[in-house]
Design a protein that fits this description.
The structure is a homodimer.
Chain A (H helix, E strand, L loop, with lengths): L9 E6 L3 E2 L5 E2 L5 H13 L4 E5 L3 H15 L2 H5 L1 H7 L2 E4 L2 H12 L4 E4 L11 H9 L4 E6 L6 H4 L4 E2 L14 H13 L4
Parallel strand pairs in A: 1-4, 1-7, 4-5, 6-7, 6-8
Antiparallel strand pairs in A: 2-3
């Protein structure tokens, strides 16, 4: 099976809230430069409709905006046009509701939300099943958490929970950059 | 098919030389902190035998050593033991020959070298075929380049070249952190 899903109906969001910190407290995390670059490059590779960076703190959104401007319009765009091309898929928003509204404005209907987590929380959907669901149309918004993961309250609101990525080792602390790459490849890559 | 390969026979190496820079000149690149963390976490997840960080510059190896010491023995080990557990899979060496000799010392035979590249260079092996080859035993050393990719002279010396990761978009500039995650999942993850 190769590319039966139209990936421009699939979006990703990186949520900096509501997530847990190391101690299980609900926090807003800071935006990390390489989360912008790496997940944008992965999103661009798989032809996604867009990548929403979600952070409720205005200073954090401003910082992300400055980084994007450098690569999309500034010196970076000239120095390495491939980066600008990838980072051009990013929209920085305050809340997941803003991402959903933006997708609804484009598609006429709001996206179904597909969450990912490192641990099994409630009923999960496998990757083959999710690919079949994607073939039905869209739009879909695949969300990734930062910090120590998306809160249980948030996960209770989503339409689908994907299975965690598990290796044979029992160690399940992939970076969000690695986990998002694997998940998007499993959902949208050519099957190998 | 689940985990038919013994992943402790599989190693990865991140080569900082010989790679091209943006202008096609052969250079040694600098070690990036998140390349250590992310690829170690991915290696640990998939249960690999080890992760070699290869850099011929002593000051670069010393820097990597200081970072590893912080997380494996220093304050970081206490602050976040999961990181120390992952970074403990890393060995910092000067040349790929050192990595091969280290693997030979452990397994009695040198590893076959499996290279990865963003562009199709010569004859490539698909992921299903490579998984079958892995089932035959080992050891194998899967190598990733930095900068603008491994040199053609180096690629001419390897035993296998994996197919590039390609999405539907034609854009093929994944970060090495994302590409290594996808490739190790395709080779060693549970099939989904």
């Amino acid at each position: 099976m190769r590319f039966k899903v139209d990936p421009s109906n699939i979006y990703v969001a990186l949520l900096h809230q509501p997530v847990y910190n190391k101690s299980g407290i609900v926090v807003t995390t800071a935006i990390t430069n390489l989360d912008l670059h790496d997940i944008a490059r992965t999103s661009k590779t798989f032809g996604l409709g867009g990548y929403y960076v979600v952070n409720q703190m205005p200073a954090q959104r401003e910082l992300a905006g400055r980084i994007l401007k450098h690569w999309v319009e500034g010196f970076g765009a000239e120095y390495n046009p491939n980066r600008g091309e990838a980072l051009g898929v990013i929209k920085v928003v305050a809340a997941i509701e803003d991402a959903k509204a933006d997708i609804q404005a484009r598609h006429g209907v709001p996206p179904k939300v597909v969450a990912t987590a490192a641990r099994r929380v409630g009923e999960t959907v496998g990757y083959a099943d999710m690919r079949r669901i994607f073939e039905g149309g869209g739009p879909y918004l695949v969300v990734f958490g930062t910090g120590w993961g998306l809160t249980e309250d948030f996960l209770a609101t989503v339409d689908y929970m994907l299975e965690p990525i598990e290796g044979p080792s029992g160690y399940n602390h992939l970076s969000v950059r690695a986990a998002s790459a694997i998940i998007l490849d499993r959902l949208l890559g050519n099957r190998v």
